[in-house]
Amino acid sequence: MVKQHLKKYMDNTGSKDLLAYLITQSSSGAKNWFGFQQQKIMGINLCYEIAKTHAADMSPDEVTEYVLRLNDSIYKKLIKGESNEQVSG
């Protein structure tokens, strides 16, 4: 259900409204508002945005690895509220 809603939303509004979608989801009260599907879509969008800016400096694999680490850090630190010690250890 979330996947279909997200695809429809992205098709209708474009990727620039991804942040607005995530904000709407965060205020929906749903426990998994930044679940796997949202992280995956955010990661794909972020890969393309970083690649556009840093194509001369980073390989596609470097961009993808960076985005995976970034999404993981966002989830652990901002969503779950873990401290650096909890994330590192």
Can you walk me through this structure?
The protein is an all-alpha fold. The protein has one domain. It is 73% helix and 0% strand. The chain is globular and about 40 Å long.
Topology of this structure?
Layout: H1 2-13, H2 18-26, H3 36-54, H4 60-79, H5 84-88
Helix pairs in contact: 3-4
Fraction in beta strands:
under 5%
In the residues, how many domains can be counted? 1
Helix-strand category: mainly alpha
Cα separation of the termini: 35 Å
What are the salient characteristics of this protein?
5 helices, single chain, 89 residues, mainly alpha
Summarize this structure briefly:
The protein is 73% helix and 0% strand. The chain has helices spanning 2-13, 18-26, 36-54, 60-79, 84-88.
